Amino acid sequence: MMSQVPENGHAEPGTDPRPVLPEGLNNIALCFSGGGFRAAGFALGCFAYLEQICIKDEPLSRVVKFISSASGGSFASMAIVHAQRNGHGFEEAYRNLFNCLEGDVLLKEVLRILKDDHFWENERPGKDRNPINGFAIAYDKMLFKGDGFGVIWNTPPAGSVKEICVCTTDFTHGQQFRFQHDGSDKYKGSFGNKYLTLRTPNEGENVKAVKAQCLEVIKKIRLGDILAASSCFPAGFEPIVYPDDFSWKAGEKSLTVDELSEAIQANDEFIIPAPVARSSGERPRYGFMDGGIVDNQGIDAFGHAENRLQSEQRKKLRDALTVRAKEALKNADDTEKSMIEARLEQEKDLVQGYGYDLLAVCDVSSNYTDEYRYARPDKSSWFLKLSLVHYAVLDIILFSLGAFGIFTDVYTKAAYFLIGATGLPILVAAYNFLSFLAKKIFRKFTGKHVPPGTIGKMFGQHIWYFARLPLYRLVELLEARATSVINLAVTLFLKKIRQDSYEGYLSGSLGKSRVFDLVKLAEQKKFLTVQDEPGLKRFVENQKSRRANSIFPTSYLLSEMNREAFMEALCGENWEEMNIEVNYDNRSELLYRVIQPDAKITKVANIAARMGTTLWFDASHQQMEMRAALIASGQFTMCHTLLRFAHRFQDSSKEWKQFQDDLLADWLKFQKDPYWLYNQIGAKIGGGAEPLKNFKPLIIS
């Protein structure tokens, strides 16, 4: 039976089953999911709380080393890192993004830009004049002030995010494409993907010079265009095209289509090129779309970043072991030297990098779906009970009446109206019939036969059957196919990818059976024995549990619809079984009970969970204070998940205890007023001048 946990929140030494953080909380990674404005607002709130909570007298945001993002989450990640690389604080990023998220301000700016010839003729002559490029220019103006990707190459100031990865989807090759860098000259992370990446030198070219030249071109890509590439979700937008849509001109400075084309090389082995385009010498063009198509949570990008960090840490640990062994070898005899060297090799084999101490996946997607409404025929309307044949006969009769009226000069105005209204369907039908007849004659004389497609074959051979169906049957057929395709692409497909991403990431978690297998493996290979307690402890602790080291602040986590799953997750963490208590207001309470949200938090979470994927807040959103709800929800959900995280580990240090106490204090404040931090930030950024809009006390009944 679990021993009673004392006042410091931990079991007695040797009895606490919770793991430890080998180096404390020094490396944090964040993933910001896609989801339009709801993702941007929620992620902004999550990071805002990291600025609020401190550990070792420093905001927790100071140890965030990596952020990956897709779609709407890229608003927050890029705004934060852009401000940091320019030497500004979080307030600058918060203010810029907060203002961008106001109502339909962004949408109105996009519409203004689309009407303005100046942008398209002078500044962005290579861009197609379409909505996604209008948004790209608006992002450039409202968030990034014309800065290019080269800003990310600026040396990260102390306490700022080291590496950022903005995900989009290479629509041509069907792969994730990454705009990423960490501000260092020796950065080893990849840019692009394996099919579309920086150009490598041809034979005889200087490798360093070519690489530097290509990087200079990439640095000039506008951040607004990168954000547009990450956030242009299907159905809502068209692809943003490389290289054309990434070109620009500003006075004597420019980024040309030719430069962009030369900087990138493509492996098109699985692409069937258009013969006309390639033979005419036209440059290949590649479409980018929403980063959430492949990985809406950005978890895959994090996996690669963690592998790089673990490799760096492993090298440092191995180097430290070598140094220690050299010191021991100085005063050792030959026998001892052999033992020390053998032991060194064994320990080097066991050493692993721990990776990131904490991953927070800030996600506004969910497992929940609306019930699929199956199409049902509407038989109530007489209009839909007739078939196409009936309407075709009626059309011919009305057309004939119109022709008769014109010919006899009777009711000529009405006659011309009938001819105009009924003539177009007849012309379309006549055109299709004559085209079909011409193709049939052509094939007969040339001997060439092109088989029709599946749909054309089905409708062509059975057109008389479909023509005689009542319209309500045709509407049902079309509606069922349209809604099922939309549901597949927008809901089921993305949710399946989401589930696979989480399952793939969490599959590396360490359970009891895994520990048993590791111990057996260690003994079989004689790396260590069960009597070698320090070695065994080190071996097991280095096998990090991804479940323990991850938190998942989601916009729906504390909402009413997630209540059952939330309680199940709490039970799975064994808070109640371990009997962990926290102290506040001169009393003790089980952590299991304290971390359950009250009605005020649930109400705000319900509002945030209700938001759909858009790039504006309409009148109903503004009436619900949706922007405020999303930001506040990000703040208190991050606090909640960090509170749970902090009690998963055993640590008797004063700093960790203070961290737990501060999280608890903030959580209790959120329980009383979910908007307290939202309003506090507003007052701070207002600086005594006119406060930002909507920063006012919100009454939660």
Index terms:
single chain; 701 residues; alpha/beta; eight-stranded mixed β-sheet; two-stranded antiparallel ribbon; 29 helices; 16 strands; 53% helix
- Strand-residue fraction? 5-15%
- Overall geometry comes to globular
Mean pLDDT score, rounded? 85
Helix/strand-derived category reads alpha/beta
How many separate helices?
A: 29
Beta strand count: 16
First-residue to last-residue Cα separation: 43 Å
Main sheet characteristics: 8 strands, mixed
Give your account of this protein's structure.
The chain is an alpha/beta fold and 701 residues long. It contains 29 helices and 16 strands. A hairpin with a 2-residue loop joins strand 15 and strand 16 (587-590). It is globular, with a radius of gyration of 32 Å. The model is unreliable at 1-13 (pLDDT under 50).
How would you concisely characterize the structure shown here?
With 701 residues, the protein is α/β, with parallel strands linked by helices. Helices cover 53% and strands 9% of the residues. The protein has 29 helices and 16 strands.
List the helices and strands and how they pair.
Layout: E1 28-32, H1 36-52, E2 54-55, E3 58-59, E4 64-70, H2 73-85, H3 90-100, H4 105-115, H5 117-123, H6 131-142, E5 163-170, E6 175-181, E7 196-198, H7 207-219, H8 223-231, E8 240-242, E9 248-250, E10 253-255, H9 257-263, E11 264-266, H10 275-279, E12 286-290, H11 292-295, H12 299-330, H13 334-350, E13 358-362, H14 382-385, H15 388-408, H16 412-446, H17 454-461, H18 463-467, H19 471-506, H20 512-524, H21 533-541, E14 550-551, H22 563-572, H23 575-578, E15 581-584, E16 587-590, H24 591-594, H25 599-609, H26 619-623, H27 626-646, H28 654-672, H29 676-686
Parallel strand pairs: 1-4, 1-13, 4-5, 13-14
Antiparallel strand pairs: 2-3, 5-6, 5-12, 7-11, 8-12, 9-10, 15-16
Helix pairs in contact: 1-2, 1-3, 1-27, 2-3, 4-6, 6-8, 7-9, 12-13, 15-16, 25-27, 27-28
